Amino acid sequence: MTRNNLVPALQSEVTLGAGLSVSGFLIQGREFRYGSSYVSELLGYAENYFRQTLSQRIKNPPKKLKALRSRGFTAYNISVKAPRREGGSVQANTIGFDDFSIWVEYEAVEEKNPKAIALLTSSFREILLGRTQEAFGQDPYLYHDRLEQFSLSFQEREALWESDRHDLDALSLPGDEDGYSFIDEAYQVLSRYQSAFEDHGIDGIYI
Length: 207
Description:
Oligomer: single chain
Distance between the termini: 51 Å
Largest sheet: 6 strands, mixed
Helix content: 40-55%
Number of helices: 8
Low-confidence stretches: 177-197
């Protein structure tokens, strides 16, 4: 990130729930963007995940990036510079509103990422409750209460899906995706020693 490439922006913390937030940026008073390192951590990855795994590679893009692009993901990264309230400035690599949304969707549907699933479920619950309250002429819950409810929902759903993921991993058998990987590796190893077995009178190796 160089100074010449930095785009002026305003920064604000975007709070999703109690203890759940990302750093948001506003460019030219109209475009919302989000710090890619914050989004990476929100989804359970290291802060440099976006840069290392999803950064655009013209000749040989990662498989995951190809799949994301098929869903409309642009991987368009903008480096911004925003003033801090306490003085000084902050620099960040950012992704757009649509890319953020598509990334969460992909993580939930394709990767079965518990954090992404929890984000989607908790978001829908908040929207559904709000729309239902409006339909019956009731006042929506206060902002603080909505944050607390979102956080509780997120923790509940994440824990449930984490538990399911661990149970599935424990039950993985040959024939599952992981099983095939194991068989492939075993075949390669055994094939490597085929001649050695034949030297000892073993006709072949069958797996």
